[in-house]
Amino acid sequence: MSNVSFKPNEDRVLVEPAPVEEKTASGIIIPDTAKEKPQQGTVIAVGPGKDDAPVTVKVGDSVLYGKYSGTEFTLEGKEYLIMRNSDIFGTI
Questions:
Q1: For site-directed labelling of 60, which of 17, 36, 78, 89 has its Cα 20 to 30 A away?
Q2: How far apart are the C-alpha atoms of 66 and 26, rounded to whole Å?
Q3: How many Cβ atoms from other residues are within 10 Å of residue 64's Cβ?
Q4: Are 46 and 56 in contact (CB under 8 A)?
């Protein structure tokens, strides 16, 4: 688990996306143009939530989210997504 110095505001969640698959189960290498964005990841940090809508995930949860959810950014040399709690479909 990453130990980052970032604390999301309100109902925001910091997620580390799962690594992109490099090849199929049968061993075929997937070219960069055919790779899909991951739709699952691990929660790294959570905000305190809003008064009327608490955050429903916790640090360490594996979550599923929408393909175009969140904002990508680099923090301490790693790629992360910051998204609202409502963008998360559920935990695995």
A1: 36
A2: 27
A3: 14
A4: no
